[in-house]
C-alpha cells in the first residue's frame, strides 16, 4: 500500500480537535474557549486548524463567543441524528446544528458505538445527515484490544471506513475527516506508538485511494486519537499519514491543548 509522501502531507492543514465528551457546562465552556482564544496567535491559526467538539448544551454559548469575538476557533458537536426532525426524543438534528453554525460533527466515536450500539450503517446515515446540512463529519474508526491482539487492526478499521462512507460521493468524501482511534488507547494513557498510528492511518489513506482516487486520498485529513498529550503529539504528527489529533482528556486543560496545537514546538 502506498503511503502519502511528506510533500503531499504539507498540502493538508493539520486539524487539532478537542473532544470534550460529557465535560464542561455552558459557563465553563465560555471560560475555556476564552482561554484558548487568548493563548492562540495568528501564527497558530495559520499553521493549524483548531476545533472544539462540545456538549450540545454548550453550543449556543460557544457560537455566541466565536461569532461575537470573530474567533478563528472552529466548533462542532459530538453526535448528530440521522433524522431531520420528528419524534426522536433526546436527539439533535443536522438542521439544528447547522443553525448553530457548527463546522464539524463527530460520527461513530467508539463511545457511541459501545454505549449506544451505533453500527456502521447508523454511522453511514449520520455521515449523510452531516453532509445534507453542510456539516463536516469527523468519522471515528478504530479497533478494540482483542482485535489489536489478533493483529487484525487494519482490516477491522478499513471495514468501518467502508461502512461509514458507503455510497458517499467523492464531492462529499473529499472533505471528510477520519479519526483513527484505537479503543484500547482512549483515556487509558496507553498511547499507540507512532508506528502503530502510521500503519493504520497509511492503510486508511490507501483505502480512500481505492474507494475514490489518489487525489482525493491525498487531500483527506486523517487524525490520530487516543491519549494524545503535549509530550507525545510531535512524534505522532511526524508520521506521514497523520494530519492531526482528536484529543479527549488533554483537551480539557486549555494550556495543554494549546501545547498540542503547537506540536511543532514540543
Ligand atoms: O475523542 C477523543 C478520544 O476518545 C481520545 O480520548 P483521550 O485523549 O482522552 O484518550
TrEMBL record:
Catalytic residues identified in the record: 109, 181
Keywords on record: Cytoplasm, Gluconeogenesis, Glycolysis, Isomerase
Keyword presence, Isomerase: yes
Enzyme Commission code(s) on record: 5.3.1.1
Any GO MF annotation of the entry: triose-phosphate isomerase activity
Classification via CDD domains: TIM (cd00311)
UniProt: substrate binding residues: 19-21, 187, 227, 248-249
Pathway participation: Carbohydrate degradation; glycolysis; D-glyceraldehyde 3-phosphate from glycerone phosphate: step 1/1; Carbohydrate biosynthesis; gluconeogenesis
Compartment annotation: Cytoplasm
Known catalytic reactions: D-glyceraldehyde 3-phosphate = dihydroxyacetone phosphate
Enzyme class of the recorded protein, top EC level: isomerase
Entry-linked PROSITE patterns: TIM_1, TIM_2
Principal place of residence: cytoplasm
Superkingdom to which the source organism belongs: Bacteria
Function: Involved in the gluconeogenesis. Catalyzes stereospecifically the conversion of dihydroxyacetone phosphate (DHAP) to D-glyceraldehyde-3-phosphate (G3P).
Subunit structure, interactors included: Homodimer.
Protein family: Belongs to the triosephosphate isomerase family.
Protein name according to UniProt: Triosephosphate isomerase
Amino acid at each position: 500500500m502506498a503511503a502519502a509522501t511528506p510533500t503531499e502531507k504539507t498540502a493538508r492543514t493539520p486539524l487539532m480537535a478537542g473532544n470534550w465528551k460529557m465535560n464542561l457546562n455552558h459557563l465553563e465552556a465560555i471560560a475555556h474557549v476564552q482561554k484558548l482564544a487568548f493563548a492562540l496567535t495568528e501564527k497558530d491559526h495559520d499553521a493549524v486548524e483548531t476545533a472544539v467538539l462540545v456538549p450540545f448544551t454548550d453550543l449556543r454559548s460557544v457560537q455566541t463567543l466565536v461569532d461575537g469575538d470573530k474567533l478563528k476557533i472552529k466548533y462542532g458537536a459530538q453526535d448528530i441524528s440521522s433524522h431531520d426532525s420528528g419524534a426522536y426524543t433526546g436527539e439533535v438534528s443536522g438542521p439544528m446544528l447547522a443553525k448553530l453554525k457548527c463546522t464539524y460533527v463527530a460520527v461513530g466515536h467508539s463511545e457511541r458505538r459501545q454505549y449506544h450500539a451505533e453500527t456502521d450503517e447508523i454511522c453511514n446515515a449520520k455521515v449523510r445527515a452531516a453532509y445534507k446540512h453542510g456539516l463536516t463529519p469527523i468519522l471515528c474508526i478504530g479497533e478494540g484490544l482483542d482485535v489489536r491482539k489478533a493483529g487484525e487492526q487494519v482490516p477491522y478499521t478499513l471495514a468501518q471506513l467502508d461502512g461509514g462512507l458507503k455510497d458517499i460521493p467523492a464531492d462529499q468524501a473529499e472533505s471528510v475527516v477520519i479519526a483513527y482511534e484505537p479503543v484500547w488507547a482512549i483515556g487509558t494513557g496507553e498511547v499507540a506508538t507512532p508506528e502503530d498510528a502510521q500503519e493504520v492511518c497509511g492503510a486508511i489513506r490507501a483505502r480512500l485511494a481505492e474507494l475514490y482516487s489518489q487525489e482525493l486520498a491525498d487531500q483527506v485529513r486523517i487524525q490520530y486519537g487516543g491519549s494524545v498529550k503535549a509530550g507525545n503529539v510531535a512524534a505522532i504528527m511526524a508520521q506521514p499519514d497523520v494530519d492531526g489529533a482528536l484529543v479527549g482528556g488533554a483537551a480539557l486543560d486549555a494550556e495543554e491543548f494549546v501545547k498540542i496545537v503547537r506540536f511543532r514546538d514540543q
